């Protein structure tokens, strides 16, 4: 599968209140290798799933880290 991520939102200002700079990226991901499960029980809901929309939030951590790190990745119910 070829990925074509899109930048969905950008906040490069951060804030004086300690908030960090963030970029939100949306892409279509092949979820077949990641079966859907019920979080509470771990039971598999579906093994064969079509590609789904995934939204990742990437955060810039200032020095001493001085790098961008993926903070969250949420696979949506929406297929693509």
> What percent strand?
over 45%
Mean pLDDT: 84
CA distance, first residue to last residue: 12 Å
* Tally of domains: 1
The DSSP helix count reads: 0
Overview of the molecule:
This protein is an all-beta fold and 80 residues long. The mean pLDDT is 84. It is built from no helices and six strands. It is elongated, with a radius of gyration of 16 Å. The protein has one domain (6-72). It has strands spanning 6-11, 21-29, 36-37, 44-46, 52-61, 67-79.
Summarize the structure.
The chain is an all-beta fold. 0% of the residues lie in helices and 54% in strands.
Secondary structure layout plus pairing:
Layout: E1 6-11, E2 21-29, E3 36-37, E4 44-46, E5 52-61, E6 67-79
Features:
6 strands, 80 residues, mainly beta, two-stranded antiparallel sheet
């Amino acid at each position: 599968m070829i990925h074509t991520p899109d930048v969905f939102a950008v906040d490069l200002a951060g804030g004086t209140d300690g908030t960090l700079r963030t970029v939100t990226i949306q892409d279509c991901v092949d979820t077949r290798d990641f079966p859907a499960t019920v979080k509470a029980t771990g039971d598999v809901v579906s093994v064969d799933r079509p590609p789904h929309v995934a939204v990742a939030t990437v955060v810039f951590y200032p020095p001493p880290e001085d790098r961008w790190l993926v903070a969250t990745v949420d696979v949506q119910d929406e297929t693509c």
